[in-house]
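Thread title: Can someone regenerate the structure for this chain?

I was given the following input by a collaborator and told the matching structure tokens would be attached. They weren't. Posting the sequence so someone can regenerate them.
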Amino acid sequence: MNHKLNMSYFVARLRDVTVAVGCALVIANAAQAVITNVVETGGDNEATDTITAKWTGQTFAVSVDNEPIPGALIGDNYTVTPFQDLAPAFVDRNHRYTNTDGGTGVEVFPIPNYLLGGDYIMSGNDNRDNVPYQLDVTLGGPARGYMLVDNRLQDGSGDDPPTIGPNMQWLLDDGWVATSGGLNRTSDATRPDELGIDEGADGSINQWYSIYTKAFTAPGTVTLLQADNGGRNMYGAVFQLIDDSIVPGDVNGDGVANMDDFPPIRDHFFQSVTGRAEGDLTLDGFVNFADFRQWKDNAVGVGVSSVPEPAMGSLLSIGMLALGMVRRRK
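Best answer:
Regenerated them for you:
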């Protein structure tokens, strides 16, 4: 038996399977596209460097060797995948998103689940200091957006969240708010969740982004403006579809928001979670007052109106109240 030949055959078939799986992910995502178009104005758009912004499912020709990924050659085609670990950040660099320290192979903390599999935008890092700059992002349905902002914005410090205002003041003016899942280097829910960036794709985390979010309840166009971040990194943007068939406040998916939906919110209050079934109604990876208020504002049935907004110390008593109401109803 020729073991060398068999091993070569195995490696070739493994490569075929890997490519097929990657293509299937792109095709599956395209079938339910969140981002249907992006129009960039004010970009550098240099023929051999910064090209117009691309997004998940789009294919573009490589114009510089090793960009946007190591090993890419001029003339190759690159197709933007759904968002994932090691997803390239820009069309004109080989920077990539990761929370894994390549030196140790240890995940510093998980990439927030709410980003994974989403449609995302690869723009040019050279556009970080362009004013004016604008991305008009067309969404194919209700979606939640996530803006990834370099921590060094304005004050130059990567150790704490970005200083917004006057730089990128438009972000707050347009209603984007910091995420609060405690998924950051300090596990602090009062700071935005974070995402690492490996500059140069050499396995090291060089800088950190903070994550801001906003819900868009209908299809339409979202406008993103300049990054105001010369000498640092351009922002990133990820969008996830919102299933508009889900009833607001309905945690357990039975089609109605009522007392049965309260226990998961109570049990996971101020905790990072992985989905709606654990009480995360706003889909930001964390259960907090926003989730409670969505449930309270939409729930119907006995006892709902008498449940007060929780304080941390009163969660247990609220839980007992809800349990008593459910028992009496039954």
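The CA atoms of residues 55 and 121 lie 4 Å apart.
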